[in-house]
Amino acid sequence: MDLDDLPLAEFAFPGPLRDTLVGAILSGAKTSTTGLLAGYECANEPLPEVGQLSAVVDSAGRRVAVIELTEVRVIRLADVDLQHALDEGEGDESVAQWRAGRETFWHSAELREELGDPDFTVDDDTMVVTERFRLVHVV
Known about the structure:
Elements: E1 8-9, H1 16-27, E2 32-36, H2 37-43, E3 53-57, E4 63-76, H3 82-87, H4 95-106, H5 109-115, E5 127-138
Parallel strand pairs: 1-3
Antiparallel strand pairs: 2-5, 3-4, 4-5
């Protein structure tokens, strides 16, 4: 498997949050993630597919692991369940706690700039892409 040929799996923006998330993936604590459907639409990117392999990159842009998607769902934000929130591996103990953390990220200036919408906000009906994955290889 040539890591250079795999699409990149970038969690958050480079910096402390990405480093924390990559560490959780490498330790096995993080086996799910959630993105905004609007992010895929804005970037004109196809949705990920079950079975897809991706190279996880750290804040320095180094490929540090390979993950395989085992589940992809497009659902309303209000429909994210507790197991998914727990499996994100960030220590959240409730869906409300998980959602508060995601809203902080999704309402950040960086994400709003990426989406091209300085007033972007989420609500219960915001469509999100939930992904489950397994760690296949650590570099």
